[in-house]
Design brief:
The chain is of the alpha+beta class and 301 residues long. The protein is built from 8 helices and 9 strands. Strands 1, 2, 3, 4, 5, 6, 7, 8 and 9 form a 9-stranded mixed β-sheet that branches. The longest helix is centred in the middle third of the chain and has 19 residues. One of its GO terms (biological process) is chromatin organization.
């Protein structure tokens, strides 16, 4: 062991570090580097700025999304093996067919300014984006139904919630939030089309991920979907109801808003193709005033 070349010792050393796990994606993630020994990275990494973008003068630190998920799964390794045993499943045959449901949360952390500090001038608000592994299922080969082998008992607890990105930014600052969370969204999108290969309980197993954006409050949903703020005439984040319509009709509501449609409406608001007045235009786009950057799926938590 002693007389090894330095790089071999380095990599042996790395593998002893907590939170360091080797994994692979099949197919490889698009637009995400394939190195898996990644620690804390700059919040803006992965953000490709275009000409008219002002460089976001902000401080943010985050984990790469896939690395964070791997670390979370390895923390649950014993629970996963226990779940397989409880269900009477032979762990040596259960190497694929795992699905993981992840709840995403994001919220402002309020005023974090130093009262008497003389450090660097940073925005005085902070935002935290985090996730919770809600459940892990497995569909054994030849079986119709999936079996739940792990369910988070305290899904709203601070203890099960894992921070992914911390940023000094006001949650109402749409542009900066887009710059920081845009790459996170791109990584998430890439993971939806791929499978994670990770060693759990001594065997390589494959996992698929589903993301549910149920941890955002209304203000954050509006921010991420490019909608007007909560004082808007358009009260609902899922449909086009105005206050007047909603007060007339408290029962019959259907989810009519989609992320793609919001993007189209933003383009319309930006270009005003019919040369309408401000009021007419606003009525046409139903309260979409910024470019949405994160798809929030309306599901019950």
């Amino acid at each position: 062991q002693i007389f090894q070349p330095l790089h071999t010792l380095r990599s042996a050393e790395k593998e002893l570090l907590p939170g360091f796990h080797q994994f692979e994606w099949q197919p490889a993630l698009k637009n995400v580097s394939s190195s898996w020994d990644v620690g804390i990275i700059d919040g803006l990494s992965g953000w490709t700025a275009s000409v008219d973008d002002v460089p976001a003068d902000t401080i943010a630190r985050r984990f790469r999304y896939d690395v964070a998920l791997v670390s979370a799964l390895k923390d649950l390794e014993e629970d996963i093996m226990e779940g397989l045993r409880e269900r009477g499943l032979d762990d040596s045959t259960c190497t694929s067919g795992f699905t993981v449901v992840v709840k995403e949360s994001c919220d402002g952390m309020g005023d974090v300014s130093e009262k008497h500090g003389s450090g660097p001038a940073v925005p005085e608000k902070a935002v935290r984006f985090s996730f919770t592994i809600m459940s892990i299922n497995i569909r054994a080969e030849g079986e119709e139904d999936a079996v739940t082998i792990f369910q988070e008992q305290k899904p709203n607890s601070e203890l099960s919630c894992r921070p992914l990105c911390l940023m000094f930014v006001d949650e109402s600052d749409h542009e900066t939030l887009t710059a920081i969370l845009g790459p996170v969204v791109a990584e998430r999108k890439a993971m939806l089309e791929s499978r994670l290969i990770l060693s759990v309980g001594g065997l390589l197993r494959s996992f698929r991920f589903f993301f549910r954006g149920t941890g955002y409050d209304e203000k954050m949903v509006r921010e991420m979907e490019g909608l007007e703020a909560s004082g808007s005439t358009y009260v609902c984040t899922l449909c086009d109801s105005t206050r007047a319509e909603a007060s007339q009709n408290m029962v019959l509501h259907s989810i009519t808003r989609s992320h793609t449609e919001n993007l189209e409406r933003y383009e319309m608001w930006r270009t005003n193709p019919f040369s309408e007045s401000a009021d007419e235009l606003r009525d046409r786009v139903k309260g979409v005033s910024a470019k949405p950057f994160m798809e929030t799926q309306p599901t019950l938590d």
